[in-house]
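Sync notes, pocket subgroup
Present: LS, DG
LS reminded everyone that the earlier model was apo-only. Rerun requested with pyridoxal-5'-phosphate included. Inputs:
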Amino acid sequence: MTPHVVPDPQAGAAVKAADRAHVFHSWSAQGLIDPLAVAGAEGSYFWDYDGNRYLDFTSGLVYTNIGYQHPKVVAAIQEQAAKLATFAPAFAVDVRSEAARLIAERTPGDLDKIFFTNGGAEAVENAVRMARLHTGRHKVLSAFRSYHGATSTAINLTGDPRRWASDTGSAGVVRFWAPFLYRSPFYAETEQQECERALAHLEDTIAFEGPGTIAAIILETVPGTAGIMTPPPGYLTGVREICDKYGIVFVLDEVMAGFGRTGKWFAAEHFDVVPDLLTFAKGVNSGYVPLGGVAISEKIAATFETRPYPGGLTYSGHPLACAAAVATIQVMEDEKVVENAARIGETVLGPGLRELAERHPSVGEVRGMGVFWALDLVRNKETREPLVPYNAAGEANAPMAAFGAAAKKNGLWPFVNMNRTHAVPACNVTADEVKEGLAALDAALTVADEHTV
Ligand SMILES: Cc1ncc(COP(=O)(O)O)c(C=O)c1O
């Protein structure tokens, strides 16, 4: 239950004024934004200073996998702060060792060594560095429809338009098309065709780039921000085979898809694939303290057994972050949070979204698994023309802005990206909360429907 919220608009105005005066926000024209002042959060909800409460269908930035303010994780952070608030990364520290053990036990295959970072982008940076040093090659292949973070290498690997302003075009990155049947780059009509053609395209790209120049292929196991496109059966195992054939390191980015979101600890389990390196962050400790990392296979770890790994971070394996990870993983086990995500996806969220798609002309496709779903909104179901153009802004983006505003009016905080809304609640969301969210989406989609033709 959310505690009784006493509105305090004056306090909210002060928070907002200081924010506007001094906080420089990510990805924004500073003068054009109007951030909501948040007064508190608990479980699947947060609220503002005016007494408005929102069901969070974004999990923050898709990371509060156990919801806000889980008392056991909060207590673990408090206890760790009292015991040993920080310690440098070169030492063996109990809570760091334990976090690494718990993570390694859950990652697939022989990914048994953990390099800790402060977040996802740093995990990607270090995975790429490891792959380059391991192979002695420089190029990295990544998918056009992808997001890998905002640091220098990670943003260059990213496919989505947030890359454009920082794209050096020389970071050793080559992009290719990964499978996405609904908007097939290969004119495919079946999942099987899409899979075969995507694999052939990848192998052609490798042949023409020069297999001996390619250090790694990086893919989100299930691409997240780019649209939650579950890969067709056989694709990821096909990529695994291609990597083995050419001695290329296979990196799976599970920063968003990992730690329960797809209804398994890691999305790779759905596809029977084990990468050489796996990046994680977000759900590892529900973002209560910044933490990310790379899970490293035996083969790559061996490269750095007697040769130093030339990379590090002051806060690598920070005790507070690791304590939050240990407690989060324990809570996820005890409260069967991963199982809940799978069951909610199969029995409530997936069927509920499909039912909305049947009734709303603006919903072109529903796709996803667990608590990881996208609604692809269209102007017309036949032509599949997106409800707004790719990377639309201002007036061109008005239909999606109207959809988002309608969702908020109905008490739902929606994830909106281009012509899509993603339903990505906490992995421990209840069936009743999901039903509440579906009702709010229903109302908001009626507004999107007005823009169909
Ligand atoms: C798949 C993926 N990789 C990497 C990142 C970057 O993570 P961070 O923002 O923690 O640097 C994100 C963030 O959304 C992500 O979704």
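DG: The chain has 13 helices and 15 strands.
LS: The pocket of pyridoxal-5'-phosphate is lined by residues 61, 119-121, 124, 147-149, 220, 224-225, 253, 255-256, 281, 292 (CB under 6 Å).
Action: DG to write up.
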